[in-house]
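Can't paste images in this forum, so I'm doing it all in text. The chain is below; anyone willing to post the predicted structure tokens underneath?
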Amino acid sequence: MNRRTDAPTHRRTGALARRLFLCVCCVGASVRPAFAQVGHDPSSSPFRDITTKQSFSVYGGTFFGNEAVAGVGAQSGPMIGGRIRTALSGPIDLLISTVYVQSTRMVIDATQPAATRKSGPVDYNLIIPDIALGLTLTGNKTWHGLAPYVAMGMGYVIATHTVVDPGGYKAGSGFTFVPTFGLRARVTRRLMLQFEGRDNTIRYEWPLRYYNPIDINGNPITPPVLNGSEKNTQTTHNFSLTAGLSYNFNF
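Text version of the structure:
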């Protein structure tokens, strides 16, 4: 629910992200045969096959929220999550994830003057399930025990507190794009450490009262919460960094 753009720009951003991900997939598919051609004695090769097809991960970290131009968006807070990963073909994986973010936000009462209109923070916890396609950049192998990956997914941001503010703004739920990059590090055949960065896009719509606030007597209030140059929609980028542990298995 941060960084300004209108709805068409939001669609163009998502389309561009998907195209970039497809390009990365093509590059990954083209370099994978090259790995197999490198001449190494198997006992001394830095590459090791990933022999498991599925994994379950638990992880935690920090959600770096974006308050958006109006200042009422999700703030930074701790997050925890879980994921099921299953191999589809070669280096391509299907990722199904859910995260819980313990966030807060501010509240704006547009009937009050600028000095006193903002209060909070109040609880604004988020549940974000998503589904994604992932690409392991080293194919179905690790390199010196490491397996970097990228992913692109789509999910839904579920806000647990959706009351309407006095200013007319409602902190609701909505779809999100989830570009991801990460690194898995082998501990044993079954266990891998996981380090990940991701971005959740969150879209906001601002009420008319933010542009033309009036007091309880119907008199205009200056300055407004947002000036006329600000669009009434905004898509924000909310980055997060996590670390966790994956258990690998074959189903």
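The longest helix spans residues 7-37. Confidence is low (pLDDT under 50) at residues 1-11, 27-38.
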